[in-house]
Design brief:
The chain has 392 residues and is of the alpha+beta class. 25% of the residues lie in helices and 45% in strands. Strand 2 and strand 3 (46-52) form a beta hairpin.
Length: 392
């Protein structure tokens, strides 16, 4: 088996010998110790032979009146011919592989996700001190863990948690600032007022005087807990009202829901692969292909002369759920969506009291629903007391 393999690797050529009485030439080759590996298509004026490549020049010296044409090759000689013929393609392939390996180890973007632009810039600058910035080499898992630990220790009074995730050549940094509640020893003199128009449902005062009754309507700015202290209708003192007020408030919500609904859910299956793009076709260098996926691409190489590019594709497999609904089914979904929309804006101590559908319209491809919501909500607000009095 080993000898067969080595034999296949040895350089060989297939020649067509043309001339008068080629059998005589065959005998001449044998007498000159040129090994004929195979003789085929022997005719009156031509014959095909396979010899070792090392004997080719010797055969050419003996050919005299015969014409010899190289019609095929085998073994390493054929491999060399193919590589020479496509040398520029092989060179491009090798350079591409090098670029892929090199560029995939470079950071091209670092993004800090936070609502505050100053905080984003602050932590981007901090990460630069650790070498986590554009055009630097990617960090190992241990390095990333060390960076997170150092930042948490360094800013333990400011930083609640931080997560650094790599997506291809990009790092996404998510963080949460630590919220520290400051205790105010001295509060300004203030009234507690209604933040918006509502029907009072609950009032709790730890300091101050409740001046509105439950189940009465209050306008925005109405005083509910007063900091003014009266005795026999005479203002004796001004304090800072402390407490909370809850009321029934109202919202109109409009929801549109389609009859054909497609929901795309991300899975935990991820992969980073390289994709060659030529003309309008893409060729993924991967054995695993996601039928449905979310894709983020970073261009590694793009030719200015031909429509050819190489990109790094970060893929997350998705499961798409498709629903085809009737008007009644879409109506039920719209109600759920509306409830979720209102609940998403409420705090833990707030809730929906009830709701009523005001209008429902079934169109050709969707339903429109107008819904009136009654909500139990914290309507506490504050207003500074400007008047000054002299107390005995």
């Amino acid at each position: 088996m080993k000898n067969d393999f080595l034999f296949k690797l040895r350089s060989k050529v297939k020649l067509k010998i043309t001339g008068k009485n080629p059998g005589r030439f065959i005998k001449r080759l044998n007498s000159n110790n040129i090994e004929l590996l195979k003789i085929s298509n022997l005719k009156h004026s031509s014959v095909d032979v396979i010899i070792y490549k090392k004997d080719y020049n010797k055969l050419m010296d003996l050919k005299s009146i015969y014409d010899v044409v190289d019609i095929d090759s085998y073994g390493t000689y054929k491999i060399k011919k193919i590589m020479f013929k496509y040398k520029y393609l092989f060179l491009f392939f090798l350079v591409s592989i090098f670029l892929i390996v090199f560029l995939s180890s470079i950071i091209f973007e670092v993004e800090v996700i936070h609502n505050d632009n100053d905080i984003r810039n602050f932590y981007l600058k901090e990460l630069e001190d650790y070498g986590l910035e554009k055009y630097k080499f990617v960090k190992s898992y241990d390095d990333i863990q060390s960076i997170k630990t150092d930042l948490l220790n360094k800013y333990r009074d400011k930083l609640e948690w931080i997560e650094i995730t790599r997506y291809g050549t990009k790092y996404i940094v998510r963080l949460q600032e630590r919220i520290i509640k400051e205790n105010k020893d001295i509060l300004e003199n203030q009234n507690i007022v209604a933040k918006k128009g509502a029907i009072l449902k609950h009032v709790k005062a730890t300091n101050g005087v409740i001046v509105k009754n439950i189940d009465t309507y209050v306008n925005k700015g109405d005083v509910v807990i007063s900091g003014n202290v009266y005795l026999n209708e005479e203002l004796k003192d001004i304090k800072s009202a402390i407490g909370s007020i809850y009321g029934e408030v109202w919202y109109n919500v409009n929801i549109t829901y389609p009859y054909v609904y497609i929901e795309s859910n991300l899975t935990n299956e991820k992969q980073d692969i390289f994709v060659f793009k030529f003309l309008n076709k893409s060729y993924e260098l991967s054995f695993k292909h996601f039928k449905e996926k979310k894709v983020e691409e970073n261009v590694i190489f793009k030719s200015n002369y031909i429509p050819l590019s190489l990109v790094k594709s970060s893929q997350i497999k998705t499961n798409n759920i498709e629903e085809i609904l009737t008007c009644d089914q879409a109506f039920e979904k719209a109600i759920i969506k509306a409830n979720d929309k209102v609940n998403s804006s409420l705090k833990e101590d707030e809730h929906i009291i009830n709701f009523k559908v005001l209008n429902k319209t079934c169109d050709v491809d969707k339903i429109n629903v107008d819904i009136f919501f009654s909500v139990y909500e914290n309507i506490t607000d504050y207003a500074k007391i400007d008047n000054n009095i002299e107390t005995n």
